[in-house]
Amino acid sequence: MKTEPTELSEERDRLGELLTDAEQRLAGVPDLQLRIADLEYELSQARAAADAARKEARRYDEQSMRAQRVLTDVMSSPSWQVTKPLRAAKRAVGTLSTLRVDGKRGA
User: What gap in Å lies between CA 12 and CA 1, rounded to an integer?
Assistant: First the structure.
């Protein structure tokens, strides 16, 4: 059986070790607080960049939709429909010219 002073001494030593450990952990708190502040700043910067990227993506989507509407309007216009045979004839003449030129070179 331990005597009361021995038990008190052991308890005091154990509490001293706990206090030392707590003090060591507390010594690291300012560094952790600085790291947290740095990470919060980086997070705010990343969020701002993401917001800007989303805004730019929306702008490009809107621009693309406008261009698609213009293209659809042009391709469905009466003038585009009327000139369709002319465009086809132009392509055919271009193909024939290419074949004739290539044929002469090979001969």
Answer: 18
Domain boundaries, the chain: 80-107
Q: Which of 27, 7, 29 is nearest to 19 (CA)?
A: 27
* 84/90 Cα distance (integer angstroms): 10
pLDDT at 48 over 80: yes
Burial of 99 (0-12, 13-18, 19+ CB in 10 A): exposed
Task: Give the three-state DSSP class for 83.
Answer: coil
Q: Look up tokens 């206090």; give the residue.
A: 19
Q: Which residues contact residue 10 at a Cβ distance below 8 angstroms, ignoring those fewer than 6 apart?
A: 2
Model confidence pTM above 0.90: no
